[in-house]
Amino acid sequence: MRDTYDVLHIDITKKDIRVEDRTDLFETYLGGAGVAIKLLAEECPPGTDPLSPANPIIFAVGPLSALYPSASKTVAMFKSPLTSNLGESHCGGRSATAIKLAGYGAIVIKGASELPIYLAIHGDDVNFRDASSIWGVEAHTVGRILREVEPGSGVRSIIRIGRAGERLVRYSCAVCETYRHFGRLGLGAVMGSKKLKALVISANKSVEIPQEKQQEYKAVYDELQKVVVKTDAMEKYHDLGTAGKLYDLNKIGGMAYKNLTAASAPEEIARELSGENFAEKLLARRISCAHCPVGCVHLASLREMYEPGYYFKTSIISYDNEPIWATGFMLGMKSAEDSLRLIDLIDREGMDVMSTGVILAWATEALERGIITTTQTDGLQFAWGEVQTYLEAVKKIVEMPTDFYRELAQGVEHAAQVYGGLDYALAFGGNEMPEYHTGIACYLNNLTGARHSHLDSAGYDLDQKLIGKPVNLEEVVEQLVKEEEWRQVLSSLVVCFFARKVYTPAAVTRALDALGLEGWTGERLNALGRAVHRAKMDFKFREGFDLATLRIPKRILEVPTPHGLLKEEDLRAALEIYRSKIGR
What we know:
Elements: E1 6-11, E2 16-21, H1 23-29, H2 32-43, E3 57-60, E4 74-79, E5 86-91, H3 95-101, E6 106-110, E7 117-122, E8 125-130, H4 139-149, E9 156-160, H5 163-166, E10 174-176, E11 180-182, H6 187-193, E12 196-202, H7 214-230, H8 235-239, H9 246-251, H10 267-272, H11 275-281, E13 283-287, E14 297-307, E15 311-319, H12 321-329, H13 336-349, H14 353-369, H15 387-399, H16 403-408, H17 412-419, E16 427-428, E17 431-432, H18 440-448, H19 454-457, H20 459-465, H21 473-493, H22 505-513, H23 522-542, H24 568-581
Parallel strand pairs: 1-6, 7-12
Antiparallel strand pairs: 1-2, 3-4, 3-6, 4-5, 7-8, 9-10, 9-12, 10-11, 13-14, 14-15, 16-17
C-alpha cells in the first residue's frame, strides 16, 4: 500500500466498525494534529460532556511515521475533562509505527461499553474483547498480561489506563509501552468513561515508496539519519536526557520550588535532583521509541529491601525533566530515590505526573496555611519532602475516600475553587503548570497555548534567550505565535519535537517529496501551521475558552523570575496582543 488515508471508526456502544477514505483531509492537512483537529470538530458535538459517550478519542499519525528517523509520535485528540476544551497529547513508543502499519492514518473511537473492554486491532481484524478480569489492575501489569494473550510481538503497541483512568481522575493518562505516556489533559479519564481499558494495535502491512522515488528516499533518509546521530542536534537527549537542564534552570532561578514559594532549590537539593546525579547513581539503560536512534528514554534502577533478611526488589523506572521537577523540586523532596518512588506509583496508577505534583504541592501549602485540615486529608499530614505521605495521597486521590480527594481528582483549579487558595493554585486555562518560572514568555505560553503546555511554543526557551535584553511584548507574542504555528506542522507530520532542529522547512519538503507527496513548499507548510493552529483555537473558543477571563495566579507575580518580578498588567496587555494576532 502507499501512504494510507484510511480512518478506522469504532463505535464501542454498537460494537461496530467501519473504514472511511479521508484523502480529502490527509492531502490538505498531512496527518497528525492537522487531521485530528478536523476529525474532532466533526465528531464532537458542541457542548459535549467530556466524560460522555459522545466525546470521541482520535489517534492520528502522519506521512513521515514509520518512514523517517524520529518521526515516532502519535497524536491523541479529545475533549479534555480537565479543561473542558481541547485535549491533545502526544506519545511515542511503538504507537505510530503500529497504527501506520496496521493500515490507518487515524482511528476514531466513540460510544461507551456497559462492561469493561479492550480493543484488539490487528490490521483489518478489529475485535472487542472482555476486559473485566483486568479492570482494576494497575497499568504496568495490564501491559504484561496483554503481551501474553495478544499476537503481534515486535510490531505491536499496547495503550492502556490504570486505576486512575477507571476512577475518572480528570488528569489521568494512558500508558504506552510501559515507559511512554499520553500524559496531559485526561485521556485516561475519557478512556475510563468508555470502559475502555486498553488498545492493542499490531502491524501487518507495509508502506511502499513509489518506484521512481526510492533512490531519492534513501538519500533523504540517510541525510536525516546523519543529522540525528552525527551532529549535536539531538545529542543532549541521548546523554543526560531532558533531565540535563534541571540544574542549570535552578541555577538561574527559573524553576518552581515548593509550589513556587521560591524560584530555585537550595544547592544541595538541586545537585541531588540534577540529571547528572540521576545518571551517575541510578541510570540503568536508555531505550528509544520505534524508528528513533536517539535513546532519550532514560531508565533508572531502584533497588530496595522489601522484607528483612536481605530480600530485595529492583524496579526499572523511567525519568525525565518534568517528572523529576514535579515529584522532586515541587514537593521539596530531598533524594533522587524518593522522587523515583513517587514517579513509579503515579505511573502505575496512570496519572499525569506534572498535574499530580502541582496538586500535591498546593495541598501541602493549603494545609500549612490552615485552609484545609487533617480531617479533610483523611489523617495525612502533608509536609515538604515526606515521600510516604505523598505516596499515600496518590492512592487516596485514586480511591477517593473523602470529599477532599474527590475534589483533588478534578484538578487544582477545581480544588482551590472549593477550598480557597486560588492565589497559589498553579494552573493555566485549567491545566496544571510545568516547571518553568523563567519570565513572561513561559506564562504567556501556558495561558495561550492550544494545550496550555510548555511544548506549545517553548516560551521558557525564549525567556532564557532574552535574559539581560529588553523585552518587547509585541515581539514576544509574535515569536510565540510563530513557534506554535510551526509546531503544528511538526505535529501533523508527526515528528518528535526533540527533532525540531533536524526537520527544518527545507528538510521537510525534501522528505515529503521523496515519498511522492510533491508540492509542499516552505510557504505552504507555514500556511498549514497557521490553519491547524487556528482550527485548534476555534475548537477551544467554541467550547467556552475565553482569553478575557483567564485566571492569572497571584503567586507567579510574587516570586522574581530571571527577568525580575512579573506584572499582571503586562500579561494582560500581551494577551490582548495575542488576541489581535490570531484574529479574535
